[in-house]
Fold:
Amino acid sequence: MQIAAIIPTYNEAENLPKLVSALFSLPLELRVLIVDDSSPDGTGAVADRLAAGDSRVRVLHREGKLGLRSAYIAGIRWALEEQADAVLQMDADFSHDPLRIPAMAEQLATHDMVLGSRYVPGGSVDLQWPAWRKGLSAFANFYARTILGMRLHDVTTGFRLWRRQTLLGMPLDQIRSNGYVFLVEMVYVAYCLEYRIGEVPIYFADRKWGQSKMTLRIQLEAAFRIWQVWWGNRVRRQLGKRARLV
Structure:
């Protein structure tokens, strides 16, 4: 199975070489697309050096900070054009452990997409997080999956693996959410389309290098936009309900 890993980056110069090395040490057939939004810390130049030294690495340079949605949509389209069998989404900061990817790939044999889940048995978040941060993370996930009515444990995770055919069946042009809510809307649309979604337990570690991009403003905006996702997909949700009744 050929897996295309899409890694959006913004100021990840310190993490990127370590992550690419860790990915290529896995017993998998992997290619990597780095999507860099003109990082001022030189991430783009680091990515170019990695690509020059390994044909399995490609780089997409973008002018300005254009956001998570457009980065992933561009990456997914590249992966599909490259005839990848599966597409991996993950962060560049080692909060998503590359060692869990083989388990996710194994589950993809019986599922249409697989989530790296912090909230299934065996999963957890960083042990060093204070109680308020653990509670906020758990509540944000509970809030999103309750409003959207998804019987999944972790709908806000950014660690996920898709079958090629699943993404070909996704209405990518109709996914309008940006930022972190884009991740929720993608899994919600897949859920409404009744794709088989698996969950593999992961340990979500806090980043070791660099600065977190998650702020309180982003979290509050995400809470509001979950309702927009619910409203924007009301027709698709009703079609799914009717299909289950037939």
